[in-house]
Design goal:
Number of helices: 16
Distance between the termini: 127 Å
Largest sheet: 5 strands, antiparallel
Helix content: 40-55%
Number of domains: 4
Number of strands: 17
CATH topology of the largest domain: Heat Shock Protein 90
Structural class: alpha+beta
Shape: rod-shaped
Radius of gyration: 46 Å
Strand order of the largest sheet: 2-1-5-4-3
CATH class of the largest domain: Alpha Beta
Bound molecules: adenosine-5'-diphosphate, magnesium ion
Oligomer: single chain
Amino acid sequence: MEKKIYNEIDWRIRIFDSLSFPTLILKPDQVVLTANTIFLEKFNTELDQVIGKTCFEVFYHDKCPHKNCPFIKVLEQKKGQSIIRRVTTLTGKHLWEDRFFSPILDDNGDVAYIIESVRDITRMKNLEIALRETEAFLEKAISGSPIAIVAADRYGNILLMNPVAEKLFGYSFNEAARTLEVKQLYPDGIAVAIMEKLRNKKYGGPGKLSATRTTILNAEDKEIPVEINASLLYEDGEEVASIGIYTDLRDKIAAEKKLKETQNQIVQSEKMASLGKLAAGVAHEINNPLTGILLYANLIRENIEENHPQLKNLQYVLEDTERCRDIVKNLLAYSRQTTPTREICPINTLIEKSLSLIRDQKLFLKINVVKKLSEEKLPVHVDKNQISQVIINLIINAADAIDKQGTITLRTYLDKNTQMICLEVEDSGSGIKKENAARIFDPFFTTKDHGKGTGLGLSIAYGIVKENSGNISIKKTDPHGTIFLLELPTVNLRSEDLIY
Ligand SMILES: Nc1ncnc2c1ncn2[C@@H]1O[C@H](COP(=O)(O)OP(=O)(O)O)[C@@H](O)[C@H]1O
Ligand SMILES: [Mg+2]
């Protein structure tokens, strides 16, 4: 009987033998009718070892371990079925197989045989697993990256935004992907400029843009300085996407600014130190002849008649000589290299004392002085006379800056961040021009009319403040006024210890 069937399908067997996959022909009761040559080779067996056995006996020597074997389904549905499964061979090897079951129907349309072919897809499956692992790894690397990464397709749709980028730009990835085009992450025109650079050989490309400073726009419409590295992704020579890697430069720029300020301060201190030495020498030299000039000019003044035609000129000589004497006195005071005698004193007391010295001057008739002084004592540890001089200088400068009517506001507080005690001298004057701002602490720099300013006030103030471990700076200036900020070190004392 079996022999007869074998003969019947002899020609099929030949075709079947030439199939390149190991293949079995099974009867509906799962008994093997035959196997092709490649099957015997692959499973290292002989035809008479497989014929007459069930398929699971052939593969597993035992019961079928697979609950969801499609064999039954093929019988029921009379349609081909396949299953991918991980198997362990009799020799202990782990393989991935794609098994395909296809029915051969008889004249009644019932399943007469089932062809089971086995394809070893281990290599493909392993590649797939490796790819999935690589993808998962990349995903982790991108989302865990400390730098901001954004990718967009060539139409500007956002494809990727890692958590650091979400924070930098202020959008969640989903929100950005749904509502934005990549160019909206930049101020007007910047995205186009970046794309142009990306396509230009000059900037490291084409297709690459390395370490370029630019500006992005966050969700609050705030411009943020960043360094961008970008590249274009190609598929078959065509641009398909772009990737941008961003480093937030705000901290770096703040640090650079701080460094520049420190450098400027060093330059200023050096200038002041050399001026001090120079001034001491020059002032000594000039002091004696000046005393002589004053003496003789006064003698002439006493001896000429009140209506002498040259009296007015002589008056000018005297006035200017007196001015020279004042300058020299200032220079000498400044250049005297004495260590300040520091005392602890509330800053408000120093302000009141300074104000009482100048309040009655003509200059202050047009000025309303507003005091916004802290309720707290705010003790500073400074040379009181020196700091008074600084405060007076600042107030007189403020008054000078006010043309007609105006206000000077004095504000004191403790800056919790720096732990410095601050005095702000604010005026409603005409402000300091940008080109002058860097020079106002320079000795002899003045914008005031001849005879009005010496240009020494702020440079002396600068020297004094540094000697007292403080800072002096312009906090704000514009055509509506200026705020000078004086910062002085505080002391941690109980208020009973204060000296008034
Ligand atoms: N509050 C202020 N508003 C506008 N300009 C100011 C102010 N304080 C100082 N300046 C500018 O700084 C310059 C230098 O000031 P300073 O050293 O005190 O010298 P002086 O007062 O003799 O000119 C002034 O001539 C003025 O141009
Ligand atoms: Mg001045």
